[in-house]
Write a structure and sequence with these properties.
alpha+beta, 6 strands, two-stranded antiparallel ribbon, single chain, two-stranded antiparallel sheet, about 300 residues
Length: about 300
């Protein structure tokens, strides 16, 4: 294997310099997702632990929050604030647009101009405007779909202390009283940087779960998908879609089994059998969720 790799590198070095420059430029201007980098980043994530009704060790609290995100779905690419600069930057990643922009600039210079400057600018403006309108309409549709999925109702067990989100809750509470901290969190999110002050996933400040220790856990029938957080207990009924990646604890069947359809994930419509473990087979109501004490170890994404 090493000899093949070395041979490939040698043949690449023998290519003319202009071809290597063109290839690298095309790679930089490409809008295709960098799947390899995404997979490498996911594979480098350490295994995660989810604590159920068990306190998270103090030495794990800061690192415990880093690998958890909110359940809100965001497929849209633009907002009202960043639409114009972001869309123009994406349009000028295309070599054709750069080429016509250079020609337009040259035509605006009196020495190179051969006709009306207004007529020179109109074509490229029309192309950019029509493309921007098309992108705006498509992104508007994405916003509608995101809102539809995020507002889909589900059933969550409430009045139950979720120890996995205490670190985020403390930072969210601190951010409410500190304008500087809110600004630093907002900037860190825009830059997509994970720092000690950016451990609060977007939208979690609005997802509160007050706990009254004098009353038992209750079932919230109209919870939203975007409010599902790591460590929450979700109760599904026949035909309900799963709002997130979930671990099967128990079912109404005596053997703890059920059937799952994954057509929205892989297109397969056949039902796949799933079964819970014996230790959690008795967790069938909110009170049972409150009595369960466990630590779930989750492998890194593949």
């Amino acid at each position: 294997m090493s000899s093949l790799a070395e041979g490939a590198s040698v043949s690449s070095d023998k290519q003319p310099a202009y071809k290597r420059v063109l290839r690298r430029t095309a790679r930089l201007l490409s809008e295709a997702p960098k799947e390899n980098e995404t997979r490498m980043a996911a594979a480098s994530m350490p295994p995660r632990k989810i604590y159920l009704n068990t306190e998270v060790p103090e030495d794990e609290l800061p690192a415990h929050a880093q690998n958890f995100c909110s359940n809100a779905i965001t497929t849209s690419q633009y907002t009202l604030v960043n639409f114009l600069p972001k869309n123009l930057s994406r349009q000028f990643r295309r070599v054709a647009n750069i080429y016509f922009l250079v020609l337009t600039i040259l035509q605006l210079i009196g020495y190179f101009s051969v006709g009306s400057r207004f007529l020179t600018v109109v074509p490229i403006i029309l192309v950019l405007a029509i493309t921007a309108l098309k992108d705006a309409f498509e992104d508007w549709r994405r916003h509608i779909l995101d809102r539809h999925f995020n507002e889909t109702p589900t059933r969550l067990v409430r009045n139950l202390r979720n120890t996995n989100i205490l670190w985020q809750d403390m930072q969210a509470e601190a951010a409410k009283h500190s304008a500087l901290l809110r600004l630093r969190i907002r900037i860190a999110r825009q830059l997509k940087r994970s720092t000690w002050y950016n451990q609060v996933p977007h939208g979690w400040e609005e997802s509160e779960n007050p706990v009254d220790p004098t009353t038992p856990p209750v079932l919230e029938e109209d919870a939203k998908w975007r409010n599902v957080r790591v460590g929450d207990f979700v109760i599904l009924r026949t035909g309900d879609p799963a709002p997130a990646d979930i671990l099967l604890l128990a079912t109404s069947a005596d053997d703890g089994g059920c059937y799952v359809e994954t057509s929205k994930l892989d297109g397969e419509t056949n039902l796949k059998p799933r079964a819970s473990i014996v230790e959690t087979a008795g967790v069938r109501d909110p009170e049972g969720c409150g009595r369960l004490n466990a630590v779930v170890k989750v492998d890194s994404p593949t």
